[in-house]
Design a protein that fits this description.
Elements lengths: L1 E3 L3 H18 L4 E7 L19 H15 L1 H4 L7 H10 L6 E5 L2 H14 L6 E9 L20 E3 L6 H5 L2 E5 L2 H5 L14 E7 L3 H10 L4 H4 L3 H12 L2
Parallel strand pairs: 1-7
Antiparallel strand pairs: 2-4, 3-6, 4-7, 5-6
Length: 241
């Protein structure tokens, strides 16, 4: 299903209508959101890259091993316990993983989509917010019982809060199964999830006004990225066109 909105008010009405639909049907859903600057497939970063040598899965394992080995002192402050934590940390710092970022915060997703489209001169005609109306069965029951590379189905999971940014962004991840990686499946095309996805399209002409409205509500780079990176991005918006 696709919707198009041009204002923040339109967006909130769209989300409210989706929630009302499930409320009236008596179904319990967890609403997850993902903002994107452009209308690109829902595939993790590792599927957007070509391995220098060997298979994708072999390079994925080698990269994780090297990430853990290269400089433990950089990782030690985060109290990492297992490979779910290592990949969560790597995801937040740009490591190519089989994870995709989602959030329970509808405004954070819209801010990310609109602000990214605003700053990216190569972005297409629309920014995108995906809405995934997830059920309990769509989450891994206990991811700690299995390795991220061994899960049999692509699922959702909530990472441990090993970094403040995860908390500020109300972070949730989807994780592609090995089979999904092998066949390069798009998350939105997985049979169990296709009917649960809504694509909200935001015309490029509308993103600047939406970003301004979100800033008025306190949704900005510093509230979402509570570090110097976020503060600097917020100050740039505040003092420059």
């Amino acid at each position: 299903m696709e919707k198009e909105i041009t204002t923040l008010a339109d967006y909130m009405l769209c989300i409210k209508a989706l929630k009302q639909k499930h409320l009236e049907a008596g179904t319990q859903r967890d609403f997850l959101y993902r903002g994107q600057a452009t209308d690109t497939p829902l595939i993790p970063k590792i599927l957007r890259l070509k391995p220098r040598e060997g298979s994708l899965l072999a390079m994925e394992q080698a990269m994780l091993d090297e990430f853990k080995r290269a400089n433990p002192l950089l990782i030690e402050p985060f109290q990492v316990r297992n490979d779910w934590d290592y990949l969560t940390l790597g995801q937040h710092y740009g490591l190519p993983t089989r994870f995709l970022d989602w959030t329970n915060n509808a405004l954070a997703a819209l801010w990310f989509a609109a602000s990214s489209a605003l700053s990216d001169q190569t972005a297409g005609s629309h920014a995108i917010v995906w809405v995934f109306t997830a059920e309990a069965e769509d989450f891994l029951p206990n991811e700690q019982d299995q390795h991220p590379f061994d899960i049999k189905e692509s699922k959702l999971f909530r990472p441990r809060i090993i970094k403040q940014r995860i908390n500020n962004q109300s972070g949730v991840f989807s994780v592609h199964s090995t089979e999904a990686l092998k066949h390069r499946y798009r998350f939105e095309e997985i049979a169990d999830y296709r009917a649960k996805m809504t694509k909200i399209k935001v015309p490029k002409s509308a993103v600047e006004a939406i970003v301004d409205d979100l800033h008025s509500l306190g949704v900005d780079a510093f509230s979402i990225f509570p570090e110097l990176e976020g503060l600097c991005a917020y100050l740039q918006w505040k003092f420059f066109n």
